[in-house]
Amino acid sequence: MKTFTHSLLGLFFAVTIGSAFVGCNSNSSDKDKELAELRQLAEMDRREMENQYADFAAQYGEMKKDIKDDSLVARLDAEQRRAENLLEELRNLKSNSAAEIMRLKKELETVRAVLRDYIRQVDSLQQLNIALTSERDEARAEVERARRVNNTISEENSQLSEKVAVAAQLNATGVTISANKKNGKDAKRSKDITRFTVSFTVTRNVTAKTGTRTVYVRLLKPSQEVVNKSGVFQYENKNIEYSAARSIEYTGEEQRVTLYVPVNEFLSAGTYSAYVFVDGQMIGSGSMSMSK
Length: 292
Fold this sequence. Notes:
- The protein is built from 4 helices and 9 strands.
- The strands form 3 sheets. It has a 4-stranded antiparallel β-sheet, with no helix packed on it.
- Helix 1 (2-22) packs across helix 2 (29-65) and helix 2 (29-65) runs antiparallel to helix 3 (70-92).
- Helix content is 52%, strand content 24%.
- It is α+β, with helices and mostly antiparallel strands.
- The radius of gyration is 53 Å and the shape is rod-shaped.
């Protein structure tokens, strides 16, 4: 097709030159008809070249839209301007400039070859971007899966820690309170009380930490006031008063513990309650009633 078009252009210009020599002496209608047809074909070929230049320039413009590489965009932009400039040259060229038309036709082939090369480059780049995007998405998905697994493990560990903490908590059973007179015997009436004796058993617990523990007893009057306020300790993020405290050496085995609460005030009749605390936890309680 290219050879035919080149021949067509050559023939057109040959006929044009020949007609100049013949001039006005030639009145052949066949020659005029042939010349008109050749001119029409040459014009069609020229318009086709214009369309191709315009199409190539447009393709460069489309390729630039999806490219993030500044260097490649700059090269595509330069090739687009080149195609646009050659199109402008072709449009402004005189019809009888055979040599220039042939030059622009050769330039067209160069522009087409360069465009094919850039299309391959852009396609390769897009395929690479697709692969990298897929890898990135997979990596993100893997990170999210790992995060969920870690959250699950953390939650399970937290629950396990809570269970271990509960299991390691000490427990006091058989909490008893007795009111004593000055001679150590049991007091029957509240006015005779000089001290309270609070006894209990710390049960066996092999999961609990062994060592020195401080035991606090909080003894409350019927009015809910603390008997023999001796100081404070922490319970549920606040300081509360206690009646008596004692250090014990816990071995993990069952242990009987007794604390004494002195009384230096008049006590009313009613129910007295004792609460036992160790390690910031209430581990047992008991109560007793006193008459006047």
